[in-house]
Amino acid sequence: MSTHTLAVLAENKPGVLSHIAGLFSRRAFNISSLAVGPTQDERVSRFTIVVDGASTPVDQVCKQLEKLVRVLKVVELSEGGAVERELALIKVRVDPAVRGQLLEVAGVFGASVVDMSPTTLVLEAVSSPAKLDALLAMLDSYGTCELVRTGRIALARGAGVITDDGPASTAFPEPAETAA
Amino acid sequence: MQELTGAQALVRSLEQQGVEVVFGLPGGTILPTYDPLLSSSLRHVLVRHEQGAGHAAEGYAWATGRPGVCMATSGPGATNLVTALSDAYMDSVPMVAITGQVGTSLIGSDAFQEADITGITLPITKHSELVTDVARIPAAIAEAFHVATTGRPGPVLIDVPKDVQQATGPWSWPPVMDLPGYQVPGPPSPTAIRAAAALLVRARRPVLYVGGGVIKSDSHADLLRLAELCQAPVTTTLMARGAFPDAHPLALGMPGMHGTYPAVAALQEADLVVALGARFDDRVTGRLADFAPRATIVHADIDPAEVGKNRAADVAIIGDLRLTMAALADAVAAALPDGAALPDGAALPGGAAGRRATAGTADWLAVLASWKRQFPLRYTQDSDGPLKPQYVTERLSALTGGEAIIVAGVGQHQMHAAQHYSFTRPRSWINSGGAGTMGFAVPAAMGAQVGRPGELVVAIDGDGCFQMTAQELATCAIEKIPIKVLIFNNGFLGMVRQWQELFYDERYSSVELGTAIPDYVKLAEAYGCVGLRCERPDEVDTVLDKALARTDVPVVVDFRTHDREGVFPMVPAGRANDEIVLGPEFSADEQRAATRREMEI
Ligand SMILES: Cc1ncc(C[n+]2csc(CCOP(=O)(O)OP(=O)(O)O)c2C)c(N)n1
Ligand SMILES: [Mg+2]
To answer: Which CATH class is domain A3-77?
Structure first.
């Protein structure tokens, strides 16, 4: 599955989420995950939207998103060019006999234990989506009984900053000049 | 600073915006606004159904190029606007809808006549806003008009709770618009223009594929210049009829499912298709993979999302189409050396402006001319009947010199009107293209007539369509809006009947309306209109003359048209344009020749 991560800056106004979600449903675009929250500028919200490139024309998604009046900027983050994180809380049923083993697995993945009962424990994991998937696969054999994930958030690596001004992100490539 | 109620501010904002007419119907939650409306400079046209208000606003916008405005109360009033909003969205019609909403404190409580109209219309508006602060009303209205009319036009809905209309707030005009995320494409890239011009000058088989954008951007004059300079044939889509004169030698007529053979075949054989404000709609392309298979594509549009959406563009020109068309015509003129001779000194249609530096399009135009001769729009009108819709349309075209404003419903009559009326100018063809909304014609004609009061506005409507919105005849009669409505009464949902004939083994399921009920003449009279009937070909001119002569009252004519007449040519849905069917007026040999399409250039 080829996933594409979009950073979308939008005005922090009522109805913006439904405009964006509505666009995806109306155009039959598939969202793999969506996370939204405020930015350093209180007037601006940032959406991180992950779309599946195999089933959804990503270029169309960007262009249609840009047309929404309340959307300020759409940037596709390149694979590997961005730090991507997801938070998961996982409740695992665990026999006291294998609890030690489980803690070891959690340790390997950098997950921490945030709650414990005689028969369950809750892990908190913050990691890249791939690493998180690997952890979940490992936990399956113990018995994951409840899972909640935030959806991906992402920030481009390096000194570059995505701001809500500057040129639109879906510029067309200039055609090659043909000899007249 | 002056203080106004929200309702006063709303009405004052509309005045400031230059609005002259509002189509609407009042109710509980919009009552505060109807009060200042009474003493304003705005004309309010009281419709009989809010859908009529919506289509009237659309017709006004199509005919004038200015945004149409409609108004309704909350709940059912607002939901009655939905079809028209959807229609305007599909056809990029600039329109502002204002709805009342239940009081702010009641929102979400299932209050009387509450409906989440911004939610309902989210996917069918360019933008919408629920205004919760009285101080925002002027800005919300100004922004609505700005968004509706700039860039790719479209409908905008402003929902105003009753208490916000009643509250008092500061008034100032012009307000500061707050649209940081809204960008209007400007001029096109000069590089893209040069690339397109270079392709146009060199093409041997170019076609200009002209869409509604050319009409919306008022760039028909540059289209004529461009076509004549390049000697490129022009096809005008259902949205663009009138953008190029049909009588011009370079005109091919309409492309698509019911397009002319020369238009459909020219696109299939073209080596260059220049799409101007068109969107490669499935009704034009047929099966997409087989559309214009040999063509390089230049796509000029104001909406970046349309370019590459259906068909990849080799050269994309994004920007204001008016600037694009002017720049493109200039670039082509510059690319052609001055005084370049024509091959063999051939006479050019379009006169002295046309000249070619290259091998030219003369051979191509000769092929197209032969197709026009061999495969014209063909029908047979026997002198003793039955009456053919094509014949009525052609007589109307002749009697009005192609100068009437024609408004169509949706169905066979719409296609016959689009095919057989010979358009001479832009904004003289108004229809529901993208949405295909039955019931569009009568109210849209009403809106068009209000926008262009001195002109002849003629609705060509189906008997099925007419019955969906006929009640606006009352509005027309009372408001003295003298539209002419020609009903092509074939007693059937004709277009659906045609599909059942062709694709469902002639099993006719729920398509027969009957011709006699209602009695359209009596119905017209009951609505205070003149009612006429025409059943025979030899009466057509007399009846049309009589109908067109009345400028004081609306006129309805019941044309009893042939119930079996189909619309041809036809590309069956989902099939390739190369599978175009000429129809029963052509022999098997002719069909074979059309399919084989031998040509050598
Ligand atoms: C609101 C709506 N309902 C249904 C249709 C499907 N439809 C398309 S054309 C047509 C028949 C229209 O009948 P009529 O107005 O008599 O026109 P004709 O085809 O007979 O000329 C129908 C039902 C539609 N386009 N719009
Ligand atoms: Mg009919």
So the answer is: alpha beta
B3-170 sits in which CATH class? alpha beta
Q: Nearest 10 degrees: CA dihedral of B186, B190, B196, B198? A: 160
pLDDT digits (tens, 9 = 90+) for A79-88: 889 999 999 9
Instruction: Convert the pLDDT of each residue in B408-437 to its tens digit.
Output: 999 999 999 999 999 999 999 999 999 999
Cβ < 5 A residues, ion ligand 2: B 462-464, 490, 492, 494
B201-211 CB burial, b ≥16 within 10 A, e <16: bbbebbbbbbb
CA distance B288 to B308: 12
Whole-model pTM above 0.90?
yes
Per the prediction, chain B carries an average pLDDT of: 95
Distance in Å, alpha carbon of A37 to nearest chain B alpha carbon: 18
Report the side by side order of strands in the sheet with A3-11: A31-38, A44-52, A3-11, A71-77
**8 Å CB contact between B295 and B272:** yes
- Which chain B residues contact residue A73 at CB under 8 A? 181
What is the DSSP secondary-structure string of A76-139? EEPTTSEEEEEEEEEEEE--GGGHHHHHHHHHHTT-EEEEE-SSEEEEEEEE-HHHHHHHHHHH
d(CA B452, CA B441): 16
A18 contact partners, CB below 8 Å, separation of at least 6: B119, B122
CATH architecture of B190-374: 3-Layer(aba) Sandwich (3.40)
Our answer to whether residue B231 is catalytic in this structure is no
Distance CA A134, CA B315 (A): 45
Residues B301, B326, B405, CA angle at the centre, nearest 5°? 75
Q: Using CA positions, which residue lies closest to atom 18 of ligand 1?
A: B494
Q: What topology is assigned to B389-560 in CATH? A: Rossmann fold (3.40.50)
pLDDT-based confidence at B342, cuts 50/70/90? very low
Instruction: Give residue limits of the domains in chain B.
Output: 3-170, 190-374, 389-560
- Interface test with chain B among A20, A172, A177, by most B beta carbons within 10 Å: A172
**CB distance B70 to B45 below 8 Å:** no
Mean pLDDT of B207-217: 98
Give chain A's radius of gyration (CA, Å).
20
Predicted local confidence at residue B1, as pLDDT: 82
Q: What would the pLDDT profile of B461-507 be if each residue is shown by its tens digit? A: 999 999 999 999 999 999 999 999 999 999 999 999 999 999 999 99
Nearest to B122 among A14, A19, A73 (CB): A19
Minimal Cα distance from A74: which residue of B?
Answer: B181
Under CATH, to which class is A83-153 assigned? alpha beta
Residues of A in contact with B314 (CB under 8 A): 175
Q: Is the peptide bond before B518 cis (omega within 30 degrees of 0)?
A: yes
